[in-house]
Amino acid sequence: MAGLELLSDQGYRVDGRRAGELRKIQARMGVFAQADGSAYIEQGNTKALAVVYGPHEIRGSRARALPDRALVNCQYSSATFSTGERKRRPHGDRKSCEMGLQLRQTFEAAILTQLHPRSQIDIYVQVLQADGGTYAACVNAATLAVLDAGIPMRDFVCACSAGFVDSTALADLSHVEEAAGGPQLALALLPASGQIALLEMDARLHEDHLEQVLEAAARAARDVHTLLDRVVRQHVREASILLGD
Amino acid sequence: MAPPVRYCVPGERLCNLEEGSPGSGTYTRHGYIFSSLAGCLTKSSENGALPVISVMRETESQLLPDVGAIVTCKVSSINSQVFLSDLEPSLNNPVLFLQVEIYKSFRPGDIVLAKVISLGDAQSNYLLTTAENELGVVVAHSESGVQMVPISWCEMQCPKTHTKEFRKVARVQPEFLQT
């Protein structure tokens, strides 16, 4: 597309950020009183809401119960007003199912499911405004919601997207950068151990560049972790003050 | 002056396995104790043994019952040896084994206090028992649909028709009796 340069000569992106810079992140925990855990996150203009119920008994067919660990059930949904054009998305369409499956794989790696055999943990994520990096925002919101629900986790799960333009890796892509068509990578990381919960890319990228892009995404995910850590500590401190400790 | 409260988040390394033993809200990896919840760190100082390190949340969420927990359940169906019941919405379906005549102890629709003796395995559900004085039927309705009043450990009476029905009645705790 002529005229749209994703990275200027001085190293500035379309929205004025540097290559490895994250968008502004604001997050809140405990937004719903009736759910076991809930959280809301804004990454730039991407807004996601996550709600967690559980652990509770298996709903529906009891045959799905796992004898030694909990079942993690994730559902992703995107609001009709979340994109530039209003688009009705039926429940159970391919993108929602795929996103739900990815979220499930991510959280099965982090939640200590052995502590709650034959039970179910429900994670519902809704994207209210999609401006790029929706998977990352969903994972970050869901992490906070799971923490809010008191479900034991191995570590935070922090996610970020990354791309590759002009031999430079960009972190935390916005919608404009994603739509430009370059390679995009989504990474979900467990920061304390450095383990990768999920790595997803379905574009073509030369393997020589993979390490650079992966490193940029990992660094950005660690920055997200610093921020979420601060949010959680603040929330725990406020909660204990309210309860009069 | 209370010692400063230390808050921790999941993934935070708390200490070595030589300095403490893992309690609730923690897990161990590579010889270190990590936190698995977001809450306050508590150390219980034992005499002689290692202190137990655990992470407590202020609001303990209602989780699934453990062995030895007293649960409230509603009888949904009975067969000659066992009966199936629905627990409160947050609990699983249990199966109860009794040696005595079932029909003289429980009827469908009764609310029963029971104790969990086993969490069951892959095929079965929870195993409960009512073999104690404080366990058994708490609320029951007579055949005419009126809530019955307990008159002994094995009988309840309907206040409207004055008919007696057999139930295995739970003994009321003294603090709940109004005299």
Automatic annotation (TrEMBL), chain A:
CDD domains per record:
RNase_PH_RRP41
Principal localization? cytoplasm
Q: Transmembrane: is it a keyword of this entry?
A: no
- Coiled-coil annotated spans: none
Q: Where is the Exoribonuclease phosphorolytic domain?
A: 21-152, 155-219
- Provide the protein's localization: Cytoplasm; Nucleus, Nucleolus; Nucleus, Nucleoplasm
Pfam families in alphabetical order: RNase_PH, RNase_PH_C
List the GO biological process terms. defense response to virus; DNA deamination; histone mRNA catabolic process; maturation of 5.8S rRNA; nuclear mRNA surveillance; poly(A)-dependent snoRNA 3'-end processing; positive regulation of cell growth; rRNA catabolic process
Domain of life the protein comes from: Eukaryota
Q: Which GO terms describe its molecular function?
A: mRNA 3'-UTR AU-rich region binding
List the keywords (alphabetical).
Acetylation, Cytoplasm, Exosome, Nucleus, RNA-binding, rRNA processing
* Entry GO CC: cytoplasmic exosome (RNase complex); cytosol; euchromatin; nuclear exosome (RNase complex); nucleolus; nucleoplasm
Q: How does it assemble?
A: Component of the RNA exosome core complex (Exo-9), composed of EXOSC1, EXOSC2, EXOSC3, EXOSC4, EXOSC5, EXOSC6, EXOSC7, EXOSC8 and EXOSC9; within the complex interacts with EXOSC2, EXOSC7 and EXOSC9. The catalytically inactive RNA exosome core complex (Exo-9) associates with the catalytic subunit EXOSC10/RRP6. Exo-9 may associate with DIS3 to form the nucleolar exosome complex, or DIS3L to form the cytoplasmic exosome complex.
Please report which protein family the annotation says this sequence is part of: Belongs to the RNase PH family.
Q: What is this protein called?
A: Exosome complex component RRP41
From TrEMBL, chain B:
Q: Which InterPro entries match?
A: Csl4, Exosome_cplx_N_dom, NA-bd_OB-fold
Q: What's the chief localization of this chain?
A: nucleus
Q: Residue ranges of the Exosome complex component N-terminal domain?
A: 8-42
Instruction: Note whether rRNA processing occurs among the keywords.
Output: yes
Q: Could you tell me the keywords of this UniProt record? A: Exosome, rRNA processing
What stretch or stretches form a coiled coil here? none
Subcellular localization is given as: Nucleus, Nucleolus
Task: Give the encoding gene's name.
Answer: EXOSC1
Q: Which Pfam families match?
A: ECR1_N
> What is the protein name stated in its UniProt record?
Exosome component 1
**Which Gene Ontology cellular component annotation is one that this UniProt entry carries?**
cytosol
GO BP terms: namely: RNA catabolic process; rRNA processing
